[in-house]
C-alpha cells in the first residue's frame, strides 16, 4: 500500500516554459522533526516533569477518583539495573499509566529490598580485601556499612529507573531498612507468635556452607553437575522375619557420600520385592547382597558385574537365593560399615518402612541420615531417632566426630570423590561395592555464591503451615483458598503457585547472619516457651521504630522485659529473619502504614517475573493469609525472562548480556519501552540488535504518523470543525474504525495484553491511516479550498485522531507523546500525561462500514493489478491508470479518488491500462477536463482564482 506523503509529494521544479503551481498547494507544515534524537531529548523532558511535579500533581488532580493500586515488588539494592529490571518496571509503568488514562487514581510507590545476604556478602568482600574479619567488627558498625551499601545502590538504581520514564514517587520510595518498616516487620512476626503459628524446631533445611546460613527455596537455583555415586554394603545382623538374611549385606546407593558418616538407619519399601542374590564374579570373591528385584540388572551394570541369573544347571553370574516382599524386613537390623570405630558407629542401624522408597533408581534400599534429608528426618523422628548435628555451619565434620572429625568441606569435590577419604575408608572396611565420579544430575546451588548447598539439620524458627490458626483453617488451607480467589495472568500461574503451596513444608524464617531484621523474641530458658506478652511486644516495636534493628541488644533486654522478669531467665533470640519474610510484609508497611495516603489495602495487582511464584508472590501470600486471612492482592501478573537474540539465557560468562543503560544511550528509552511492550512478555522473549532495529522501524512509522497529523492540522481551529452529520462517508467510516479500536484497546488494558495494545495501535497507524486514509485524502488536504466541506471534514477527523492517538500512545512512548503534545499545545505547566481517555464523537459510520470494507478489498485488487504496469514503466504512478472493476460499491468518480487513479469503469474483470487524460499541473491528477499537461483542472483553477482574489 502507498504511504502518506508530505513535502515529497510536490512536483519537481517546473521547466522554463511551464507554470510552477507549488506555492498554491496547501502542504502540511510542522517543526516536529522526523529524526527523533531521543537520547538527547528525553533527559530534558524528564527534567521538565520534575519541575512540574508531575507525579504529585496527578495525585492532587485524581484524589477523588477510583483507585487502582499496583504494589511494587522490591528489587534488590545491589548492582546496576539490568534488562530484567527494565522490562519489569516498564510493564509496571504501563499498568499504572493505562489505568491513569482510564481515569483512575493509580499511584506508584517504588521500593527496594535492603536486607540480607547479598549485601552482607559484598561488605564482607571489602573486609576480606582489607584482611579484616567481620566477626571482629562491632555488629552495629557492620550493619551501618551494610545500610550505607544498600542506600548507595538504591540511589543508583533510582536514577536509572527514572531514566526509563517510569512515573512514581521517587522522592519517597519504601525501603525495607527504614526504621518504620523494620518495626512493622517485627510487629508482623509477633502476630504469628501470638496465634501460635511460630515455633522453633530442628529440621533439615537448605544450607549454604559457604555463606553459613539457611536459605529459602527462592534463594536456590538448580544446575546440572557431575557427582560421585557410590554403592555401600551394610551387614545385616538381625532379621526376625527372614533369618537367611543374617550375614548378608544390604546395599544402598547414594550421590552424597558425605552423608554416610551420619547414617542412622536403612529404609525399605514394604511393597517392594527384594532378592537375596549371590554375585559370583566379584573381584574380592562372591558376595551375598540384598537389592530390589526390579533393580537387579541396573545395579549389576553399575557395579561392573553383568547379571545373568543362574537357572538350574545353566551358566550365570548371579544366584538368587531368596525372594520376599519388603514387609519381611520389618525388625531387621544392620550395622554401620565403620562400626569398629565404636560410639555412634557401633549403634544398630534399624530397617524402617518408608513409603518414599521406589524402584526408579538405586537399589530399592535407602540409607537414612536424619540430619540431611527431609524424608530421612521425618521417618527417623517417627521411630525415635534424633539428628546428631555432625556437620557444622561451614560444611566440616565437627572436631569430636569419630570418623573424619574436623575434615571437609562436604561440598568439596575432592573430599567426596571416589578416590577421596570417605570412599577410601569404606573400601578398606570392605563396604564399598562401587564408586564412580560420573553421575550427571541437577543439584541445588546458592544463587548468590553459586556454591552447592546441602540439607542440614539445625535449630531454626518455622511458621507452621498445617496447624489450625486459632481453631480455624490452617495457613495452607487459607493460602489455597486465597489462590482460588485471585486472578492470575496468565492463568497458568494459578497452577504453578498452587502446586508449590500445596506441597511446601513449614516456612523456615530464621537466618544465621547479621544484616537483617532480628527475630525479636524471648524464650524462657527453663521451659523453652516463647514469651508472648503484648506489653513486651509493644515496647520492642516502639524501640525498632526509633532505632531500627540496632535496638535489639543485650543491654536493652531488661527494659523490654519490664519489671517482674529476670533477664537471666530468658534467651534473647539472635537469628535474623529470612528476607522473604521482610518482603512478604511490604503490603503491611507500605499499603497500610498511612505514610502514603494515596495507597490502600489490598493491592489490585502484584506484577513480577514468573520466578516469584516461589518468591515474593508466595511469601506475601503466606504472610498475609497468616495475619489477615486473605491474599494482599486481587490479581497477579507475571512475565517471562529476557533471552538473547538466539534464545539463550543471558550470562556475563557467555558475554551475551545486554545493558539497558547502553540501549537508552544509543536508542532512547522510548525504543526500549516499545520493545518491552511489543514482545509477548508472559513467556520468555528475546532481545538483540536485529530485534531492536525492527522496533526502531516500528517507532519511526509511529513518529511519522504523528508528524503527518501535526503538519496536516497546522492552523486548524474550532471554526473549521465540521459536524459529524456533514462528513463524507470516508470520514464517517474512519470514525467507525476509531470507535472499534477504542473498545479493543480498552479490552487489551483490562486483559493486561500490552503486546496486543501496541500491535493494535501500530497496525491502525500503518494500515488504516498512512496506507489508506491519509493516502486517499492527501489530494483533498493539499489541493481543495480551505473552506471545502471535504477538506474541513478531513481535518476535523484528523483532530479527532490526534487527540485519540496521542493519548493512546502516551503510556507506551512517554517521551515522544509529550513531545507531540507540546508541539501542538505548548504550555509551561501542561502535559499529555494529565489527560484522560479520549472522548470520541458519537458513532456515525456503522451504516457505511460494510461498503467501505468492500472498497478496501477492491482497492487492494486494483493496486495489485497496477503493479505490473508500474514495473514495466507503462505507468509511473497509479494516477496514470484507467481501471475496469467488476463491482462499484461507490460512484465511479469516488472510486477513482479512493483508488487514486485517473478513471474507473465497470466491467467483467479487473483490468488496468494507461489513461489518455492530461495531468493537472497543480494536483497531478489526470482528468478529462485538463486540456494539456500542466494546465489546471476545474477544481484547481477555482481554488487558485479564489486565492488570487483573496
Give a structural overview.
- This protein is an alpha/beta fold.
- 38% of the residues lie in helices and 16% in strands.
- The protein has 27 helices and 31 strands.
- Strands 6, 7, 8, 9, 10, 11, 12, 13, 14 and 15 form a ten-stranded mixed beta sheet that branches. A four-stranded parallel beta sheet has the order 1-23-24-17, sandwiched between helices.
- Strand 23 (605-609), helix 17 (616-628) and strand 24 (635-639) form a beta-alpha-beta unit.
Brief overview:
This protein has 950 residues and is of the alpha/beta class. It is built from 27 helices and 31 strands.
Notable traits:
950 residues, alpha/beta, disordered N terminus
* Number of helices, counting only DSSP H or I runs of 4 residues or more: 27
The quaternary structure here is single chain
Rg (C-alpha, Å): 38 Å
In terms of DSSP E residues, the strand content is: 15-25%
- How many DSSP E strands? 31
Largest sheet: 10 strands, mixed
**Rounded average pLDDT:** 92
Uncertain residue segments: 1-17
Instruction: Give the overall silhouette.
Output: elongated
Amino acid at each position: 500500500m502507498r504511504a502518506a506523503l508530505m513535502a515529497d509529494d510536490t512536483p519537481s521544479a517546473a521547466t522554463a516554459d511551464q507554470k510552477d503551481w507549488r506555492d498554491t498547494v496547501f502542504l502540511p507544515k510542522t517543526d516536529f522533526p522526523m529524526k527523533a534524537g531521543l537520547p538527547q531529548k528525553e533527559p530534558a523532558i524528564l527534567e521538565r516533569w520534575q519541575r512540574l511535579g508531575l507525579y504529585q500533581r496527578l495525585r492532587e488532580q485524581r484524589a477523588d477518583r477510583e483507585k487502582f493500586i499496583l504494589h511494587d515488588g522490591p528489587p534488590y539494592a545491589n548492582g546496576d539495573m539490568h534488562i530484567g529490571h527494565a522490562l519489569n518496571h516498564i510493564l509496571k509503568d504501563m499498568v499504572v499509566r493505562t489505568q491513569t488514562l482510564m481515569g483512575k487514581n493509580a499511584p506508584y510507590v517504588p521500593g527496594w529490598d535492603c536486607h540480607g545476604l547479598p549485601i552482607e556478602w559484598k561488605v564482607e568482600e571489602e573486609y576480606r580485601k582489607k584482611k579484616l574479619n567481620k566477626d571482629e567488627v562491632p555488629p552495629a558498625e557492620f550493619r551501618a556499612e551494610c545500610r550505607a551499601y544498600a542506600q548507595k545502590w538504591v540511589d543508583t538504581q533510582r536514577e536509572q529507573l527514572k531514566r526509563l520514564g517510569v512515573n512514581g514517587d521517587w522522592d519517597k520510595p519504601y525501603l525495607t531498612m527504614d526504621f518504620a518498616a523494620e518495626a512493622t516487620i517485627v510487629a508482623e512476626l509477633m502476630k504469628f507468635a501470638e496465634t501460635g503459628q511460630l515455633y522453633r524446631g530442628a529440621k533439615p533445611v537448605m544450607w549454604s556452607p559457604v555463606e553459613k546460613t539457611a536459605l529459602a527455596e527462592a534463594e536456590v537455583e538448580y544446575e546440572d553437575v557431575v557427582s560421585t555415586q557410590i554403592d555401600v554394603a551394610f551387614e545385616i545382623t538381625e532379621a526376625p522375619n527372614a533369618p537367611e538374611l543374617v550375614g548378608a549385606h544390604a546395599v544402598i546407593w547414594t550421590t552424597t557420600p558425605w552423608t554416610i558418616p551420619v547414617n542412622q538407619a536403612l529404609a525399605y519399601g514394604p511393597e517392594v520385592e527384594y532378592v537375596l542374590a549371590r554375585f559370583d564374579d566379584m573381584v574380592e570373591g562372591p558376595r551375598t547382597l540384598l537389592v530390589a528385584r526390579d533393580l537387579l540388572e541396573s545395579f549389576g551394570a553399575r557395579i561392573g558385574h553383568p547379571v545373568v541369573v543362574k537357572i538350574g544347571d545353566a551358566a550365570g553370574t548371579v544366584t538368587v537365593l531368596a525372594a520376599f516382599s519388603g514387609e519381611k524386613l520389618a525388625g531387621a537390623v544392620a550395622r554401620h560399615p565403620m562400626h569398629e570405630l565404636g560410639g555412634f558407629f557401633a549403634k544398630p542401624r534399624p530397617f524402617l518402612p518408608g513409603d518414599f522408597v521406589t524402584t526408579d533408581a538405586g537399589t530399592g534400599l535407602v540409607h537414612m541420615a536424619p540430619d540431611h534429608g527431609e524424608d530421612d528426618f521425618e521417618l527417623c523422628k517417627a521411630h525415635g531417632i534424633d539428628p546428631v548435628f555432625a556437620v557444622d555451619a561451614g560444611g566440616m565434620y565437627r572436631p569430636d566426630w569419630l570418623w573424619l572429625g574436623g575434615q571437609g568441606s562436604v561440598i568439596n569435590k575432592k573430599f567426596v570423590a571416589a578416590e577421596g577419604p570417605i570412599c577410601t575408608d569404606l573400601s578398606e572396611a570392605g563396604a564399598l561395592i562401587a564408586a564412580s565420579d560420573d553421575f550427571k544430575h541437577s543439584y541445588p546451588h546458592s544463587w548468590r555464591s553459586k556454591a552447592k548447598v546441602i540439607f542440614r539439620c539445625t535449630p531454626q524458627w518455622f511458621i507452621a503451615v498445617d496447624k489450625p490458626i486459632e481453631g480455624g483453617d490452617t495457613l495452607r488451607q487459607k493460602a489455597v483458598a486465597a489462590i482460588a480467589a485471585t486472578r492470575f495472568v496468565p492463568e497458568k500461574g494459578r497452577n504453578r503457585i498452587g502446586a508449590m503451596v500445596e506441597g511446601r513444608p513449614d516456612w523456615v524464617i530464621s537466618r544465621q547472619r547479621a544484616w537483617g531484621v532480628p527475630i525479636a523474641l524471648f524464650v524462657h530458658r527453663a521451659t523453652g516457651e516463647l514469651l508472648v506478652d503484648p506489653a513486651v511486644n509493644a515496647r520492642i516495636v516502639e524501640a525498632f521504630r526509633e532505632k531500627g534493628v540496632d535496638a535489639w541488644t543485650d543491654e536493652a533486654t531488661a527494659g523490654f522485659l519490664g519489671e517482674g522478669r529476670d533477664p537471666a531467665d530468658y534467651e534473647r533470640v539472635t537469628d535474623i529473619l529470612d528476607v522473604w519474610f521482610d518482603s512478604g510484609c511490604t503490603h503491611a508497611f507500605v499499603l497500610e502504614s498511612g505514610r502514603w495516603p494515596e495507597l490502600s489495602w489490598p493491592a489490585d495487582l502484584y506484577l513480577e517475573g514468573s520466578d516469584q511464584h516461589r518468591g515474593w508472590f508466595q511469601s506475601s501470600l503466606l504472610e498475609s493469609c497468616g495475619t489477615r486471612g486473605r491474599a494482599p492482592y486481587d490479581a497477579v501478573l507475571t512475565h517471562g525472562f529476557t533471552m538473547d537474540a538466539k534464545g539463550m539465557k543471558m550470562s556475563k560468562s557467555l558475554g551475551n548480556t545486554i545493558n539497558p543503560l547502553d540501549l537508552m544511550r544509543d536508542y532512547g528509552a522510548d525504543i526500549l519501552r516499545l520493545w518491552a511492550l511489543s514482545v509477548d512478555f508472559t513467556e520468555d522473549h528475546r532481545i538483540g540488535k536485529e530485534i531492536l532495529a525492527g522496533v526502531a522501524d516500528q517507532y519511526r512509522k509511529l513518529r511519522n504518523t504523528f508528524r503527518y497529523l501535526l503538519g496536516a492540522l497546522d492552523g486548524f481551529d474550532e471554526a473549521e470543525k465540521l459536524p459529524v452529520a456533514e462528513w463524507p462517508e470516508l470520514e464517517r467510516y474512519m470514525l467507525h474504525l476509531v470507535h472499534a479500536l477504542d473498545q479493543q484497546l480498552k479490552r487489551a488494558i483490562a486483559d493486561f495484553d500490552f503486546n496486543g495494545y501496541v500491535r493494535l495501535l501500530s497496525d491502525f497507524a500503518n494500515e488504516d491511516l498512512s496506507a489508506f486514509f491519509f493516502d486517499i485524502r492527501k489530494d483533498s488536504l493539499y489541493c481543495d479550498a480551505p473552506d471545502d466541506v471535504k477538506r474541513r471534514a478531513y481535518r476535523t477527523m484528523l483532530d479527532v485522531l490526534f487527540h485519540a492517538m496521542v493519548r493512546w500512545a502516551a503510556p507506551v512512548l512517554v517521551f515522544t507523546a509529550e513531545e507531540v503534545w507540546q508541539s501542538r499545545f505548548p504550555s509551561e505547566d501542561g502535559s499529555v500525561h494529565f489527560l484522560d481517555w479520549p472522548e470520541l464523537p458519537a458513532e456515525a459510520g456503522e451504516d457505511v462500514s460494510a461498503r467501505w470494507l468492500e472498497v478496501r478489498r477492491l482497492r487492494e485488487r486494483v493496486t495489485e493489478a497496477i503493479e505490473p504496469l508500474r514495473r514495466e514503466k507503462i505507468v509511473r504512478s497509479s494516477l496514470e491508470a484507467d481501471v475496469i472493476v467488476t463491482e462499484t460499491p461507490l460512484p465511479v468518480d469516488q472510486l477513482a479518488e479512493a483508488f487514486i487513479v485517473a478513471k474507473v469503469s465497470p466491467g467483467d474483470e479487473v483490468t488496468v491500462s494507461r489513461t489518455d487524460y492530461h495531468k493537472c499541473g497543480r494536483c497531478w491528477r489526470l482528468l478529462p477536463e485538463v486540456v494539456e499537461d500542466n494546465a489546471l483542472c476545474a477544481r484547481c483553477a477555482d481554488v487558485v482564482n479564489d486565492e488570487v482574489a483573496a
